[in-house]
Each structure stands twice: as structure tokens, then as C-alpha cells.
């Protein structure tokens, strides 16, 4: 113990010294930059081009050095908050040398001796901590595999220079610390989990080779956390080739983007850019057509769609649809183009010349071929006219472009896409909303048509794309992603949490789209108490799910005589939450409209709640009211699911929403209804299937390691 205290005290002392040194060095660099700038302002006129260029380079170099030092200072400051969280004692087989390796969020070495005092959790040696129990172990160092024996593993909770507790854990990363972490109140934003990453999660984080990695994980298995830790790992591992500017996350909505925004900065990395499918659609369709959004489609679905609309959605949500559209588009260029003579200012290009010129560009998208043909025809005729002393104007080139366009019956990608539905077997499967707006189901088929028929700029600078909520995207959306992002991808989601069963993708379908992908699965669920997980499992069963044992109050399903009594019940639950130690509360309704109405009712009673709808961009901590769709990916200490009446939750889509709402709860779940409860809660009336009552607030800790209480 004394040894541990000394190690911590020495590490903190050196960290503080290093911070001071860095501060002074940053000040000096800032001074140098300022001097250079002043010199430049004063002497700019007298400097020649070479001197100016040299000066600029010098300033840029100083700025680069300063930025680097600022970044290291940030890391040191972060380490000072908690210098390390783990230690692994490893004896190398090669020379029998044994050493304790301390692990924290960043590397830190003694500036004098260069001895590593803390290893970054992403460093090769740190994988020992996550991947092995006591006994034989190995890790991949740059020079090759290092083999040896783990003689001990220890976990710490260090705050500043105080050792709050530590555990010796011979086996996996101790349940004790994990239990403590999971029992805590939800943070305002998603937090990092470096201290308790589990082995199966580490495998996902440290996979360096997959071009595409598909991660299927049950609700609460840490998919999103793990994907963000994976980004941090890749940025560390490939720091020379990859920067945060090259990584992007495709997230379901802006609220979710805000919720996860802290994880990478907490891990010492810059935030990565975020995008959603709506922004992609907007980028390509803004000047083409108005379109229904995903959220509008969800609202429509929850209100109930007719059979024809369901058929249109399902048809466009299959891999076969992509193949069909692809084939049809590929043959348009040859089958629908009719070469004709071009004539301008009494000069002609024969039909054969046109046909040959068009054939020469085979392989390019059809509208690019037409543009190329028009350009070469105009250039040729222009030359002939000018050679004879004539004049050529922009109007002549335009006229040629028109003549060429007239050889292809489709004006643009939209009319081409509409023509796809003129085939008798597809009649009625395209139905615009009014005259100018297309349904959501047509949005990505149209974007795909645009990409396949004309040159479109993609996202070339992105080298790694994270795709969250993979089950909510259709094969044609993946086809669009493949065209726009020719980079590595981490694709994650849960087939059990689809928002729209009519147009979602199952794991096998996604696997077929990326046949070379590495597929990994996370089955342990960490978020909720065993009682809540068991309850949610009765709503929608997933046999693969393994709950992490942690106990709390059984979920309550509360009946109310009428609407007024129902709202009073919610008021009482909100009050109860206020009196508790829990911080965050999510009131999760089926739809945004229901959330809005209840928000108004509760506001009239003086309850202050943050209302999140599709326009919201920020995740507010504390008490929130929203819909299940928007709550996807979020979590709360306490969840209240109002109006779980059978009329409200009756369809498969409703069931999905109920499951999402229940699985957002970490510690407490309450459901309220008027009239008969939803059919999906019928199990609550069968005594045998109810989760066993547990003592509130007790956490079942399986005692794997020896506990050394400190302080
Ligand atoms: N190894 C771990 N140590 C501590 N906490 C963990 C660990 N793994 C996951 N968690 C916690 O479990 C919760 C769920 O994580 P996350 O939101 O990443 O899961 P998810 O699989 O994306 O969930 P969902 O699909 O249900 O939205 C978070 O509170 C996260 O901090």
C-alpha cells in the first residue's frame, strides 16, 4: 500500500513539474510567434518573395510546435485529474524481467529518465490489461509478439493525488469496479469507459485490419461507447496517417450527436464531424425535389399507413431492389440513347460520328456521357466555323447541348427514376406526396440514381466512417454510402431496435452488402438493472442477451382510472424522482405529438422539463420529455413511459417503440396507462413471468478479486 502511495505521489509530482515546463515552453513559443509577426509587419515591403516564404514557414513551424505543446499540456492536465486506473504486472519470457505497467488515458514518462510511468490505454502493452487473466499472456509490440506471464492485475480509483480505492483482480477487469461504474447516476453526456472495457469490447476497439467492421450488439451492450473508443484507438495507432478530420460519424439525429460529443475529447482526441442521412439527402436533392424526412415517415407510420404505402416502402427496402434498379440504370445508356445528326450554322456531324463519339465514353455515367458528347461536338463544329471565318457564340454551344440531350428521352435523374416505375410490374410503386415532394422511401433510390447517372462529389477526405443504428438503413442507403465514402467503416446497431420494420435491414442483409466485413457481436448488456432488462426482454425477446447482474426496483406498470388520474400519477412519479438521488429522468412517449401534449400538461402544473423534438440539436441533462424515436441511443437514470394503453401500443412498430423506451432506463422504469394495458405487457399479469422482486438499491457483486479498501 505504501509503495502505491509513493508511486502516485511521485507520478503527480512529475506531472506537475512537466506541466510547469510545458506552460513556460508554450509562453516562449507564443512570444516567438509574436516577434516574427511584428518583424513581418514592419519589414514586409522590403522583403523579397523568398524571404517572405521563409518567414511564413518559420511562423507556421512555430505555430505547429505550439499546437503540439498545447495538446500535450491538455493530456497532462487530464492525467492530473486521474493519473491512472489500472496496473498489470508482466514478466517477459524472453529475459524473465518483471514489471508493473500503470495504465491511464495517456502516456507519461519521467522527463529525466524517460521511464514510462503511465501507459496510454491504447498502447500495445495495455492490451494485456484488457485481454488476459493471470498466467500466460502476450501482446503485439512494433517489433513483434512479446510473450510472458501476468503475475498480477490491479484496479484503482484515483482522483487527483488521492487513491480512493484499489482492487486486486486476478481475472477479468473486476466486477467490483464495473458494478460501481454501472450503479452511478447517468452523466449529462456519454462518458468514457476506459477503466472497465471488457475483453469482448476490446476486441472490437483494437481490430486494426477490418476494412468494414460490423458490430451487432444488444441494447445497452456499449456499441456506441465502443465505436467511439475504437475511433480513439485508431487515431492513436495510426496517428501519422489518420486525424480526426478524416473520421466521420453518421448518427441518427443531432440530439444523439450532442449526447456523444464528449467522449473523444475526454479521451484526448478532437471531436469528429457528424452527419446524418438527412443532410446527405439535402446535399444532393436540395435543387432537385422536396422530400419527406425519416422523422415524417416515422410519424406517418405510427399514425398507421395503408397497405399500398407499406408495399411501396417494403419494395424499396430489399437488396433485390438495389440490384433491379442498378441493372435498369446500367442499360439505359445503351438502350434509350438514339444517335442523330447534329447541325449548327450549316455545319453537320453525321449520325455515325455521333454514335461513335458516344460509344467511346462507355463506362461513364450516362449524363456525363451526354455532356462529353455535346462538348466534343461543339468543339469540332466551332473549329470548322472559325476556320471558315465565321462566328461562334455560347448560344451555338447551347443549341448543340439541346440537340444531344434530345437524343436521350430522360431529362434528368428524377425523370429517369420516375421512368423506372413505368414498367408494368412496378406500376403504382412510385407515389409522390402532392406534385413536388417525394416519399422518404424514394429519397435514397433517387440519390443513388443521381450518383449512378452523373458525376457526384463524395466525401473524399473521410477515411473512416462510423455508422450507428445500422438496422434503420435500407440496402439502397448502404449502396449510396458505398458510392460516397470509399473508406473503412465501422457499422453498428441492434436488429432488435428497428424504428421501421417495413424498411430496416437485418444483420444477414447488411452482411451480404459487405461480404468481406468482419462481424463481431456484443451480447452482454450493461445499462439497465437486471429487473429492467428482464422486463424489456418480455416486451421483445432477444435470446442472445446476457444481462450484467445488478439489481434495483422491479419496473412498475401503474393503471389509472382516467386521463386526469394518469397525469397525476406522472406528476407523483416526477416528484418521487426529484426526491431521489438520481439525476436524469426521461419521460418517453410513443410519438412527439403525445410528448408535446403531455409536456404542456406538466408545464401547466409547474414541472420544468426539456422537450426534445426533431428540431432539437442539444441533449439537455436533467428531466427530459421526448418520443421513443428521438430517445434512441440515449439513457436516463429513471424512465417513465406514459400511456402504455393497448390502443396506443398495438402494432409491431409500437412494440419496437415500447422496447426502445424501456431499454433507455438505467435504474428505474415506470409505465402508466388508462384502460387495458398494451398487449405487449400482458406478461405482467402472469405471476410466473414477472421478474423476481429485488431489494431496491442492492448490487449483487460477484467477488472475483480480493478487495483492498483504501482511504
Ligand atoms: N465496459 C463497460 N464499463 C462501464 N460501462 C459500460 C461498459 N460497457 C457499456 N457500459 C455502459 O453501458 C451503457 C450503454 O452503452 P451504450 O449506450 O454505448 O450502448 P449501446 O449498445 O449503444 O446501447 P443502445 O443500443 O441500447 O442505445 C452506457 O452507460 C455505458 O457507459
UniProtKB/TrEMBL annotation:
<protein>
    <submittedName>
        <fullName>AAA family ATPase</fullName>
    </submittedName>
</protein>
<keyword id="KW-0347">Helicase</keyword>
<dbReference type="InterPro" id="IPR027417">
    <property type="entry name" value="P-loop_NTPase"/>
</dbReference>
<dbReference type="InterPro" id="IPR000212">
    <property type="entry name" value="DNA_helicase_UvrD/REP"/>
</dbReference>
<feature type="compositionally biased region" description="Basic and acidic residues">
    <location>
        <begin position="701"/>
        <end position="711"/>
    </location>
</feature>
<keyword id="KW-0067">ATP-binding</keyword>
<feature type="region of interest" description="Disordered">
    <location>
        <begin position="686"/>
        <end position="711"/>
    </location>
</feature>
<feature type="domain" description="UvrD-like helicase ATP-binding">
    <location>
        <begin position="196"/>
        <end position="529"/>
    </location>
</feature>
<dbReference type="Pfam" id="PF13538">
    <property type="entry name" value="UvrD_C_2"/>
</dbReference>
<keyword id="KW-0378">Hydrolase</keyword>
<dbReference type="InterPro" id="IPR014016">
    <property type="entry name" value="UvrD-like_ATP-bd"/>
</dbReference>
<dbReference type="InterPro" id="IPR027785">
    <property type="entry name" value="UvrD-like_helicase_C"/>
</dbReference>
<feature type="binding site">
    <location>
        <begin position="217"/>
        <end position="224"/>
    </location>
    <ligand>
        <name>ATP</name>
    </ligand>
</feature>
<dbReference type="Pfam" id="PF00580">
    <property type="entry name" value="UvrD-helicase"/>
</dbReference>
<keyword id="KW-0547">Nucleotide-binding</keyword>
